[in-house]
Amino acid sequence: MSAYVGDAVPTLDQKAYKIEGLCGDDELKKAPTLSYESTPDMTKPGSVKIVAAGAEASDNYEVSYGTGTLTVSNRPVTPPSSSDKTEVEHNQDGSTTTTVTKPDGSQTITHETATGTESVVAKDKDSNVISTEVKVSKKDAESGRLELPIEGEKVSKDLDDAVEISIDVPSSVTATSPYR
């Protein structure tokens, strides 16, 4: 099983295991319960063992369990085309800023904080912001800390010219536990 840094912890349900060795229409009497050996840290790459227990089959079978693992990895970056110019800046605060400039002068600027929050700003060839997307890490959502990448942008009186911002937050942010 795999997930990316910043994702919610995957649910361990019947899709998280497979059964092998049963004959014909035979089924388990009781499905296994799955759990993580320790709480997965979704703020950095790593792995956690998945433990299965409690499955029951008829007397004709002996139940055994394989090893399961949740692997958390950094989200892959789409490589730019050979004509794109890419600059990567590793900042002192642990964040990374990647700027991809297309041959027409348009840019995509991706900033990922040390805690996993990612913002992506797309600019046209005249440096006008055409879209902004923010994916808030669970750690930042729970701490109430968030920086939006709109510093230095012009205020627009015309709604059609306004900067549009899309913010994705972890499922842990709810009406009863809002972002601060």
Automatic annotation (TrEMBL):
The organism's superkingdom is given as Bacteria
Pfam families on file: MBG_2 (PF18676)
Q: Where is this chain compositionally biased, Polar residues type?
A: 67-83, 93-118
Report domain MBG positions.
4-71
Annotated InterPro entries: MBG_2
Looking at the record, which segments are called Disordered? 67-127
Q: What is this protein called?
A: MBG domain-containing protein
Provide the species name. Collinsella tanakaei YIT 12063
